[in-house]
């Protein structure tokens, strides 16, 4: 054991608390920024992938509890970018969570591309963290009572409770102006396809998965009127909060449905597509957040292990008759995807782009690309 680590153990203070709206208090040790924060407390049962999860815009407004007992042991990678100026190891350009709750923090880290500790990263982005909490007891409470508002309180800082589901979170995580990501064959007018990515908080790997399939991606703000541009299909991204808050997005997708433009929704995109089609959504008791959620293709025995991060679901009982349930969650029977019976519209509640988690369902991007050939290139 190093002298630095011994000094750390001797000087650490039990000076920070997680306070839930029901009055429950969980005391622990501070790592990360010494500041207060408030949000919806949710849990994730994944074993790895904290750099990707913490930068997932779907976590905007939430305090994240990681149930895996040891976090931080492989550090944090550098912010390297690829040829498209997309970060390689993160799903957005900053930490999106309001706070991080873990059982045991690994101060000493080791990994080939790590450049800093998890604590240092949190400090840089002014995000508080707590370790030393009984995350099993906390998770059981959230499962029994449902997700609830909470706040991180330190000796130097206190804040008010905050319900992110009443905020326009998608506006906070979406881009402000359209961005074009050109495919490798963007000069080939015969073969190249162009896809509009409606950015409701899009993860970087959604863009990568589309570019790998040689389509040009036009990423647009969540409320952008993209019908003045030529394109072949639409992808509705993941994102945070209550899907019904995104009135303009739902309106645009409803128009695209009427025009029979191929559509692929992911996570929040599944809910927005359902709402645009005339369906309904509801809030889950504690949501699905992990990399081990089993999803069955409806009417078959084919099951996939998927990455998920959502707190709302589609109500299949209120979907129009010309829509089928595509995937179902094996654990609780909730909807995990829909598709139209005759037209090129499809969506899934899980994340086929993974990051983190299994890539077993990335083939769904191929299924969407095939649908781009169903309708001729859309022009205004």
Count of DSSP-assigned helices = 9
Which word captures the global form? Answer: globular
Structural class, by secondary structure, is alpha/beta
Chain-averaged pLDDT: 93
User: In total, how many domains does the architecture comprise?
Assistant: 2
| CATH architecture type of the largest domain | 3-Layer(aba) Sandwich
Strand residue content: 25-35%
Write the layout of secondary structure elements.
Elements: H1 3-11, E1 16-20, E2 25-32, E3 37-44, H2 50-54, E4 62-66, E5 70-71, E6 76-77, E7 99-101, E8 104-105, E9 114-116, H3 118-124, E10 128-131, H4 135-145, E11 148-154, H5 169-173, E12 179-181, E13 193-199, H6 204-211, E14 215-221, E15 233-236, H7 247-258, E16 263-266, H8 268-276, E17 280-297, E18 303-315, E19 323-329, E20 335-340, E21 345-348, H9 363-371
Parallel strand pairs: 3-4, 4-7, 5-8, 7-10, 13-14, 13-15, 15-16, 16-21
Antiparallel strand pairs: 1-2, 1-11, 2-10, 3-11, 6-9, 12-14, 17-18, 17-19, 19-20, 20-21
Helix pairs in contact: 7-8
